[in-house]
Amino acid sequence: MQQLSSIVGLLAAAFVFGATVWFFFIQAPALLARLGRERFVPIQMMATRVLGKTLVVGTLLMLGAALLAAFTAPSGSPLSPLVLSAGVALLGALVNERLLIPRALKAGGRGHLEIRGHDKDASTAGFAADGVGSATATLHRLVVLFVVVMLAGVVPYLLILAALLPAS
Q: Which parts of the chain are beta strand (E)?
C-alpha cells in the first residue's frame, strides 16, 4: 500500500511540476511570440483557469498520497517532511486558484484594452512580471510568487520520494 501511494504521489508531483514548466516556460513564450500579446492574452486567461484547477487536484493527490504513506509506514519513518512539502504545494496552488487567479483574470480583462496595438512591445519577461499592464502587475506577480511557493513544495516532495522508493 505504501509503495502504491508513493507511486501515485510521484506521478501527481511529476505532473504538477511538468504542467507548470510547460505552461510558463514552453507554451506561454511560444504562443506569445507566435500570436502577439493581443491574441495571446485571452487564450492564456482561459488556460490559466484550467491550469489553476488542475494544479489543485494534482497537489491534493500529492498530499493524500503522502498522508496515506505516513499512516501506513512503520513507526519512526521519516515521512513527515513528505507531508509538509505536499501541504506547502497544496497551499500555493489553493491560494492561486481560489484567491489570486480570479482577481488577476478580472483585472486582466480590463487591462486587455491597454495592450491593443502594442504587440511589438510584447516580451515573455515583461508579461511574466506585469501581465497585460499596470492594472494587473501586482496580481500577476503574486500569482507567480505562489507558483514558486507551490514548486517549493513539489521539488522537495519529488526528492524525498526519490530517496524513499526502492531502486530496481
A: none
Q: How would you label 16-35 residue by residue, b for 16+ Cβ within 10 Å and e otherwise?
A: bbebbeebeeebbbebbeeb
CB 160 within 8 Å of CB 82: yes
Distance between start and end Cα atoms, the chain: 18
CA distances from 146 to 52, 97, 100, 139 (A): 11, 10, 9, 11
CA distance 11 to 61: 9
8 Å CB contact between 130 and 140: yes
- With cut-offs at 50, 70 and 90, classify the pLDDT of residue 117: low
Residue ranges of domains in the chain: 2-164
Distance CA 159, CA 153 (A): 10
Tell me how far apart the alpha carbons of residues 145 and 103 are, in angstroms, rounded to a whole number: 15
State the pTM of this model: 0.84
Positive or negative: CA dihedral 42, 34, 122, 120: negative
Q: Does residue 88 have a pLDDT over 70? A: yes
